[in-house]
Amino acid sequence: MRRVFPRLLAVAALSAGVLCVGTAAADSILEFDVWMQKIDRHSQSVLLALKRQDAASATAEARELEHLYGLMERFYEARGEHDDPLLLSWDGRQRAARAASLVERGDFAAAYESALGIARDCRACHDRFKPIKPLG
Length: 136
Fold this sequence. Notes:
Layout: H1 4-52, H2 55-78, H3 84-104, H4 108-129
Helix pairs in contact: 1-2, 1-4, 2-3, 3-4
């Protein structure tokens, strides 16, 4: 047992080092997927808050969407993509900012339409521009 433990410890340390190196290269894709999941949740939450006319929640959700779309915009810029995915990211950020601004003015109907555009664009964009393509 005394000989096995140091070997197991060495193998575990090497494995941890390999895993750390492997995940460092994938961080941007993993972060992208987390952003997509957050955008999906917040795009639904903002619509519900707007239906309830809950200004505080709707504004907070829209501002978070604005932030997340900004992250996505920078993600596509860093990849050198300056066509549709970058434009859709910019558009999502603008729609979210507009929704927040409209809520602050008390125009829940117009804010809802702006937020609804985000939800519709998510579906249209997702399959075409998701950076991880399914195999086969």
